[in-house]
Amino acid sequence: MPAHISEIFNSIQGEGPYVGVRQVFVRFEQCQLHCAYCDTPQTRNVSGSYRVEKAPGTGEFYSLKNPVGRDELEEIIRKLWSPSTRHVSLTGGEPLIHADFIKTLELEYPLYLETNAGFPGKAKELRDKISIASCDIKLPEHDSTDHYSELLKNELETISIFNETSTTFVKVIILPETTTQSIAFAVDGVESIDPAIPFILQPVTSSRKVSTERLLELMELAGKKLKDVRVIPQMHRMMGFL
Ligand code: SF4
After folding, report:
1. Among 2, 21, 111, 168, which has the minimal tally of Cβ within 10 Å of its Cβ?
2. Residues in the ligand 1 pocket, defined by CB under 6 Å
């Protein structure tokens, strides 16, 4: 079963607790959500081709036709792997939409999944293959969906599933308008699963800054119930990496 992807490259993880770790990134197409802050809106739909960076850091790409087959993708990943690379990052779009495809991969490298966590059924199918799971919790003000309660329930279930088998952390995007109440719901949800799950507050990369005072307030709120709360911005955007 082939999959639609948008790009493959070798770069440096710019988000979350693994910031600075070198990875091969496979960006899948399609996403069931429509977050207001989305920085990859072009990946929400399927396209006829994907791009592969010719050499790390060059910003030069060649194009290949979608959909990609398992053997083809594995060959490209192996060519892009390097001595300092540590994981294959499955990102998107929403990679869990492609769980059936990901299940068939036979790579000798650890898989790092970046997911909006909206598909617990697919998380169950994949959990034994995933070494590290970066799971989002969306907030109502992200405008990701018309069915927020259902999404939050699915996200918490997905986090719980991955937390049983994979190194798992939660990432929440903080907007200037993020409310104390919406963060409190997310914190309560994570606490009910495991208060030791790292909880990352990621201020949105935008001209509309979240103040330091507000970030510290939200950290305090989360820190009352969770053991590992951090603020980590998008480093790749600051440094100009892919
Ligand atoms: S889940 Fe990610 S890819 Fe999907 S709309 Fe939201 S930010 Fe964009």
Report:
1. 2
2. 31, 33-35, 38, 40, 92-94, 116, 144
CA atoms within 13 A on the CB side of 185: 16
Q: What is the pTM of this model?
A: 0.96
In angstroms, the Cα distances linking 62 to 76, 140, 178 are: 12, 39, 40
Instruction: Tell how far the Cα of 29 is from the centroid of ligand 1, in angstroms.
Output: 10
Give the amino acid at 84: S
Ordered structural domains, the chain, with CATH: 5-172 (3.20.20.70)
Peptide bond into 93 cis (omega under 30): yes
What tens digit of pLDDT does each residue of 131-160 get? Answer: 999 999 999 999 999 999 999 999 999 999
Burial class (CB in 10 A: 0-12, 13-18, 19+), 164: exposed
Tell me what pLDDT residue 42 has.
86
For a ligand 1 pocket test, name from 38, 39, 148 the mutation site with the most ligand atoms within 8 angstroms of its C-beta: 38
